[in-house]
Description:
This protein is α/β, with parallel strands linked by helices. It has helices at about 5-15, 30-45, 60-65, 90-100, and strands at about 1-5, 20-25, 50-55, 75-80, 80-85. The protein has a single domain (about 1-100), classed as Glutaredoxin. It is about 40% helix and about 25% strand. Belongs to the thioredoxin family.
Amino acid sequence: MKVIETIQEFDQLIESNKPVLVDFFAEWCGPCKMIAPVLEELSKSYETIEFVKVDVDALGELAQRYSVMSIPALFAFKEGQVVKSAVGFQPKPALESMLNLIK
């Protein structure tokens, strides 16, 4: 999964109208580390969806934009709009249903 480095990079990706799953995370976050391998596995099954990570410590402004108060926070984008979001560790079936909304 690609880590977004700048707000401009994030905005360009979202505006590209490609389906995107964004994982807001932090290196120190235990549940973030637990969900990472599940997302990595799903990224191989859902090849039409772009999977990216946003470090809330590095890009706090983006976290604020989406009112991220707890992490991991997942946002599913389709055609530049948030279709669904979820906070905290999510089991694989819940993630799959989220991804099926944007594929």
